[in-house]
């Protein structure tokens, strides 16, 4: 697929996320009309792997509303969020201002992050939870991450497991409640086109730009892209918990997150890499 075609699809995604933003602001899923609690979006192993953040420069790529970005500021980091959606960046600025937190947000495509950030480098680059699927080229992404990190800096990627993405979110017509593999686990099959008036939240219908494109990326593709970019993989964690109940049969755990009663399968993974 040509670079121009990828650019067209990413432009469609950008318009889609602009349209999603007011929906997400109004949703109970994000709960932004209640007490802000960004820590609820983090698994405990994330904080163990991220380590001390006070006084560090932390960049959150593809940050959307900045719900995780502000958690870094709360822990004393010099936090920066980057997203390609102008509506998301405007909303994120408002959320941080309301919380009384000093967070810098930059609107840019992740592939243009080095230029958009003026060559600034960071101690930590954080990304994930539904971000990589909107990127067609992981080698290009990994090169950007490497250029954003200081020597010794760390990338922390927390992403939905490709097995989760392979399972249909809901049964097809005439099917029972069993979870079935309906989509590719491995990448390389081209983008999946979606035309949806509702997002993963409970918010109202999306108005306007409803088209979006997603790319599957297996774990080996992610790991090999980072290795080719010169990063060293330090740790990989697979988790059977999600921060929200994707399926009705999920049960709440002591952490406040959700897991399937059976079978135990990976739904989320955390990857720590260093430059």
Automatic annotation (TrEMBL):
Q: Where is the Methyltransferase type domain?
A: 59-155
Keywords from UniProt, A to Z, are: Methyltransferase, Transferase
Q: Name one GO molecular function term.
A: methyltransferase activity
DNA-binding: present as a keyword of the record?
Answer: no
Which BP terms from GO are recorded?
methylation
Question: Hey, what's the signal peptide range on this chain?
Answer: none
Task: Write the protein's name.
Answer: Methyltransferase type 12
Is this entry keyworded Transferase? yes
């Amino acid at each position: 697929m040509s670079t121009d075609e990828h650019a067209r699809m990413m432009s469609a995604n950008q318009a889609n996320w602009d349209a999603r933003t007011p929906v997400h602001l109004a949703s109970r899923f994000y709960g932004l009309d209640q007490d802000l609690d960004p820590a609820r979006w983090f698994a405990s192993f994330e904080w163990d792997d991220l380590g001390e953040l006070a006084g560090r420069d932390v960049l959150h790529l593809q940050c959307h509303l900045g719900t995780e970005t502000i958690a870094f500021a709360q822990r004393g980091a010099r936090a920066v969020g980057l997203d390609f959606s102008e509506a998301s960046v405007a909303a994120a600025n408002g959320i941080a201002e309301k919380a009384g937190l000093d967070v810098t947000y930059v609107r840019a495509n992740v592939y243009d992050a080095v230029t958009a950030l003026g060559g600034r480098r960071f101690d930590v680059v954080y990304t994930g939870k539904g971000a990589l699927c909107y990127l067609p080229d992981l080698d290009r992404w990994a090169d950007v991450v490497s250029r954003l990190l200081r020597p010794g800096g760390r990338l922390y990627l927390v992403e939905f497991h490709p097995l989760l993405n392979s399972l249909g979110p809901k049964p097809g017509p005439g099917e029972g409640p069993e979870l079935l593999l309906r989509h590719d686990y491995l990448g390389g099959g081209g983008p999946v086109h979606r035309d949806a008036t509702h997002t993963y939240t409970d918010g109202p219908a999306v108005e306007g730009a409803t088209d979006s494109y997603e790319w599957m990326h297996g774990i080996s593709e992610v790991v090999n892209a980072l290795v080719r970019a010169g990063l060293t993989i330090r740790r990989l964690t697979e988790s059977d918990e999600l921060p929200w109940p994707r399926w009705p049969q999920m049960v709440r755990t002591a952490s406040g997150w959700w897991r399937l009663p059976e079978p135990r399968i990976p739904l989320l993974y955390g990857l720590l890499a260093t430059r």
